[in-house]
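INFO batch 0412 | record 1 of 1 | parsing
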Amino acid sequence: MGQTSFDIEDLLFKQLQGTLLPEEAAYLEAWKAEKPGNTDFFNQLTSPASLTKKLRTFADNDIEAARKEALSHLFPTRHLYKWWAAAAAIALLLTTGAYLFYKQPSPTVITQTIIAPGHPGAILTLANGSQVQLDTLQNGVIALQGGVRARIVNGSLHYEGKPAGTLYNKMSTPKGRTFQLTLPDGTNIWLNSGSAVRYPIAFNGPDRKVEISGEAYFEVAADPEKPFLVSVANKTTLTVLGTHFNVNAYDNEQAITTTLLEGAIQVKNTILKPGQQALLRPDNQLQLLQTPDINKVMAWKNGLFDFEGASLREVMRQLERWYDIEVVFEGPVPDIRFGGKMTRGIPLNEVLEILKGFEGADFKFHMEGNKRLIISR
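INFO prediction complete | emitting tokens
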């Protein structure tokens, strides 16, 4: 096929998600027609009959064996080694389904309501208090403030120019929305759903300070002359110098969690190294974790749910934020731990079907309208 326009692994993953664009579907069809092996591979990955047959062969409910089995069947050829990242994501998605399928072939969820997944979007509050909805805006200038232009570029907000004074904007993502913006210094921020960041539209002082709530991932532009400071939920301040890190500061979580991927960051009096995680408890005590699961921390930014080891309450908090619902427990909350990963790009009812298939999931789901999810025994 010569020079490619698309990555095949991306197209295969989109095929599973049902999000292929027309031009991507056409390219995938051309790739399948190149040689029989491509078509066979595609059919193994997507055919319901083929998939069902493989799921039934997984013995003893061994999820690790199922994962290896799926990889060996779905990615058998030598030249596919470079597809490992996509293969792992797809295999995890499939083998989670395999595990649930084997445990309970016909799980029942008491809901017919289809709740769509979240998508990119935010509310920009300007310095004068006016607000701009960013869900459907096209590329171009959306606001002028004191000599500074706020511009949408390929779904991300950027700033251009220098203001005469100090003006602040606030970016908020409602439940069911995520968004990315680039600050005037080149720092990139990704906001998870139900989050917000307040920032000056130009950094004129001796430092660069922003305020956040909810969850955000930062890639901070290096500037040794101006430290980057993050005020987290009015409870603590992070000091940063050119680094990549994630902060989870939702009000309904048990701690403020800061995870460092690159560089250096100071949390209270502790300097984090790459790969470490700091948990700030409500009593202001700091706990340092040496080997957190970075993939789990970054799952939301990569379009995934990672429920490995998560309790029912923890899972439901994620679903509340992403699907913009309220979860109500009627009676005792079942003590169950989930596992595996899945895409965040599927409707809520499909997620509930998967959760209901876990061993020990002796509870029911019921939607009241489009916003209230009732969980009962």
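INFO post-check: Residues 48-108 have pLDDT under 50 and may be disordered.
INFO record closed
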